[in-house]
Amino acid sequence: MKRRLALLVLLCAATPAWAHEGPPFPILVDQRVGPYVASVWTDPDIGTGTFFVVLEPPEGRSLPAGTKVRIGVQPVSRRLVEAVYDAAPQPVRFGERHYAEVPFDQGGTWRVRVLLDGPAGGGELRSEVEPTPDGTLGPIDLVIYALPFLAIGVLWLKAALRSRRPRVGVL
Fold first, then answer.
1. pTM over 0.85
2. Average pLDDT of the residues in 36-53
3. Long-range CB contacts (< 8 A, 24+ apart) of 6-12?
4. What 3-state class would DSSP assign to 113?
5. What's the CA gap between 44 and 24, in Å, rounded?
6. 3-state DSSP helix/strand/coil percent for the chain, to nearest 5?
7. What is the separation, in whole angstroms, between the first and last Cα of the chain?
8. According to the model, what pLDDT value does residue 86 have?
9. Mean pLDDT of all residues belonging to the chain
10. What three-state secondary structure class fits 114?
11. By C-alpha distance, which of 43, 170, 167, 37 is closest to 104?
12. Which residues are within 8 A (CB) of 48 and not within 5 positions of it... i.e. 6 or more apart?
């Protein structure tokens, strides 16, 4: 029994991590580009990836109004031409934040270009991301996530049944 439990624990611990699940992570932080200080955060899931571009003014200056942000993506393999998506502004207390959803048809390394354009000038930032599966397996998720609870339930039931067995030869 102990060997089986040890094997189960070993197999569960050895499963690969399939995807990044959680909040976006930074790919560029506090980069000076034109009249902006920009940071780019992303959650590049296969299917639909998200990008957040945060713009702040350099010290002692203010952000020019009417800034446009676009995100360009292309596989490093160049199997597709670059696709460019507009990022929509979102309300924030300080600076500006722009949000874009970008489709990724498969994993691998993708080039990312962030294009900034406004009345005070613009610029371009470059980086790379690797889209990962979004972490969902569909209906089978329920079965996979329920397995540890079912295993504990089976162990508890087995222990309960053993304790109810009559003991022979014990006074």
1. no
2. 93
3. 8/151, 12/148
4. strand
5. 8
6. 20, 40, 35
7. 28
8. 97
9. 83
10. strand
11. 43
12. 101, 102, 103, 104, 134
